[in-house]
Amino acid sequence: MDDLYREVIIEHYKNPGYRGKLDPHDISFADNNPLCGDHIQIDLRVDAGGVVTDARFDGHGCAISQASADLLIESVIGKPLEEIKKLNKDDLLELLGIELGPVRLKCALLSLKVLKAGVYGLGEASDSLVE
Amino acid sequence: MPMSLNIKEIRKDFPILERETQSGVRLTYLDSTATSQKPLQVIEAMNDYYRRSNANIHRGVHTLAEEATAMYEGAREKIAKFINASSPREIIYTRNTTESINLVAYSWARANLKQGDLVILTEMEHHSNLVPWHMLQAERGIELDFIPVTDDGLLDLEVYKALLKRTPKLVSFTHMSNVLGTINPAGEIIRLGHEVGAIMLVDGAQSVPHLKVDVQALDADFYAFSAHKMCGPTGIGALHGKSALLEAMPPFMGGGDMIKEVKLRSFRPNTLPHKFEAGTPAIAEAVGFGVAVDYLTKIGMDDIAAHEHEITSYALERLEEIPGVKLFGPSADKKGGVAAFTLEGVHPHDVAQILDRDGIAVRAGHHCAQPLHEKFSIPATSRASFYLYSTKEEVDLLVNGLYKVKEMFG
Ligand SMILES: Cc1ncc(COP(=O)(O)O)c(C=O)c1O
Fold first, then answer.
1. Which terminus of chain B has fewer Cβ atoms in its 10 Å neighbourhood, N or C?
2. Mean pLDDT, to the nearest integer, of B369-395?
3. Which chain A residues are Cβ-neighbours of B408 within 8 angstroms?
4. pLDDT tens-digit profile of B205-260?
5. Where are the strands (E) in B162-236, listed by range?
C-alpha cells in the first residue's frame, strides 16, 4: 500500500468530520487551486480572546486536498489565531503523515493557504503564506 | 482497404515504450494527445543534424550553411505535401499550434478586424483558440460567439447556421477535440462559413497527427498544427495559409531573415514564407519535423487512423463496463483516439496518481479546455489517449488499474 493514499487519508476524504459551513461565522475565506480546480472554503468562529471555537470547510477536489482540509480544521479548533498564523508547510505535512511531490503539495497546501489568508484578513491567498 | 499495422515492429521504433517507471513496472503511455512519443528515426535525424550539418541557414555560402538550409527547406516541402498544400510557400514554421493561431490573431486579425466585427469560435476549443481572441476582444472590441456543444459532444450545426446570418468575419474551430475526441465536419463548416464570406481558421493540433488532412480539399484559409503531437520534436509547428492571404498580411515579428532590405528608418519584408519567420529558427526541429512526416507517411495515415479507431472502440467498450465510469464525447465512429472519463467518488487527480503506480500515464485536469468542462458541470476529467503504437493490452492494463482505484476508494 502506498503512503500517499494511506487509509487515514481515504477515510478523511470519504467521511470528513468537519465538512460544512458555519452561519454565523467570524471569518470566512475561499480559494481555488487553478491547476486542478480544487476549491476550499473555510469558516471560523472566534471568541473574544482570539481563540477558534468552531470551524468547518467546504469544497471539492482530490483526496489529498479534501483530507488535508479536514485534518487541518480538526487541529485548529481550540487554537488561538496567533498560533494559526505560525502554521507552515511542515506542520501540515506532519498532520498528513505523507511525503508529496511538488504538484500534489499544492493540493495539500490549499486549505492552509485559505485558512491563513482568512486569519490575516487578506484579499488573496498567496503561496508565500505557507512557505 | 486499410492494412492492419505491425504494432510489434512499430513499437521497436519507440525506445521510450520499453522503459520502466519504477523497478519492474513498465511504462503504459496513454497520453499521446498531450504529446506523442518520438521514433528513433526522428531522434537520430536531429542528432545527425547536430553531429554533421549544424550551421545557420540562408545567406551562408559555406557547405554546412547550404546543407542546413537545404534540410530546413526540404522539411517544409515534406510538410506541405503531407497536408496537400499547393506550395511550400504556404507553410510558415512556428513554435506550435498556439503560436500559429496567435500569428493569425496578431497579423491577419489586427489588419482586418475592427470594433463590432464578429468572430465565431466553439465551446470545445482549447485555450489556445480562445485566449488570443479574448485578448483581441479587449483590445479591439470585436464580438465573440460560440457554436454550442451538444450533450453527446458534437457541434450544433443548426445554431452555427443561425450564427452565420450575423456575417462573421472569421470562424475558428478545432478539427478534432482534445477532450471529447470529436472529429468535426470541417469541410462542411468551412463551406458554410465561406458562403457568408468568413475567413476560416482550423486548429489542426489533433487532426494532422491522426487523420489524413487535405487543406485544399477542405478549402481552409488557415490551418494550424504542432510537430510534437505527430512524432516530431517540441518547439516547432506550422501555420498553413492560402498564399493570397499571407501575401496581404503584415509581418508578425520583426528581425533578421524576415526582411528583404533594411534601412536605418525602414524595411521591406521578405517574400513568403520567410516574411513570417524572424530570427534564427528551430532548424534541428524542422529537420525532425520533416522526418516525422516521412515516418507517418511511410506507415500510412489511413492505416494509422484505422488502428486508432480499433483501439478506441475497444477502450470505450471496456471502460463502459466499469461501474461508476462516465465517458464524455461521441461514439467511436465520430471520434479520434481519446477517452475522457470520470470515476464516481474519485477525483481525476487521484485516479491518475494511482494509475501511475502501475506505470500507466494518463492525464487529469481540464486539459486546457476549462469552458468545455464547465459546460458539462465537472471540474476535471481523466483522459486516456491512443496513437499508432497503442495496444489493446494497454487498454486492459488501464481497465485493471481503474478497478484497483475503485477498490482503494471502495
Ligand atoms: C486541440 C488543440 N489545440 C491546440 C493545442 C495547443 O498545442 P500546442 O501546445 O502545441 O501549441 C492542443 C494541445 O494540447 C490541442 O489539443
1. N
2. 94
3. 5, 10
4. 999 999 999 999 999 999 999 999 999 999 999 999 999 999 999 999 999 889 89
5. 170-174, 199-203, 222-226
User: Is residue B2 in a domain?
Assistant: no
pLDDT confidence tier of residue A1, bands split at 50, 70 and 90: very low
**Overall domain count for chain A:** 1
Backbone angles phi, psi at B90, to 5 degrees: -90, 0
Distance B324 CA to ligand 1 centre (A): 29
Compute the distance between CA of residue A70 and CA of residue A17 in angstroms, rounded to an integer: 7
What separation in Å is there between the alpha carbon of B209 and the centre of ligand 1? 12
Distances, alpha carbon B4 to alpha carbons B23, B209, B304, B311, in Å? 33, 18, 8, 12
Distance A11 CA to ligand 1 centre (A): 38
B349 and A39 within 8 Å at the Cβ level: the answer is no
- Of the three residues B252, B280, B298, the one that is the final residue of a domain is B298
Task: Please indicate, yes or no, if residue A27 is contained in any of the structural domains.
Answer: yes
- For the cut 90, the answer to whether the pLDDT of residue A8 exceeds it is no
Q: Residue B338: give its domain's CATH number.
A: 3.90.1150.10
Query: Total domain count for chain B?
Result: 2
Q: What is the CATH number of the domain that holds A43?
A: 3.90.1010.10
Residues 6+ apart with CB under 8 A from B317: none
Instruction: Measure in Å the smallest separation between the Cα of B348 and chain A Cα atoms.
Output: 7
Whether the complex's predicted ipTM is more than 0.90 is answered with no
Q: What is the mean pLDDT of residues B87-101?
A: 98
pTM: 0.93
Alpha helices in chain A (DSSP H): 7-14, 63-76, 81-84, 89-96, 102-120
Cα B193 from Cα B335, distance rounded (Å): 23
Instruction: Please judge whether A4 and B353 are an interchain contact, meaning their C-beta atoms are less than 8 angstroms apart.
Output: yes
- In a domain, residue A82? The reply is yes
Distance from the Cα of A62 to chain B's closest Cα (Å) equals 5
In terms of Cβ atoms closer than 10 Å to its own Cβ (0-12, 13-18, 19+), residue A68 is: buried
Nearest residue of B to residue A103, measured between CA atoms: B349
Once rounded to an integer, what is the mean pLDDT over residues B58-72?
92
Contact A3, A61 (CB under 8 A): no
Tens digits of residue pLDDT in B23-40: 999 999 999 999 999 999
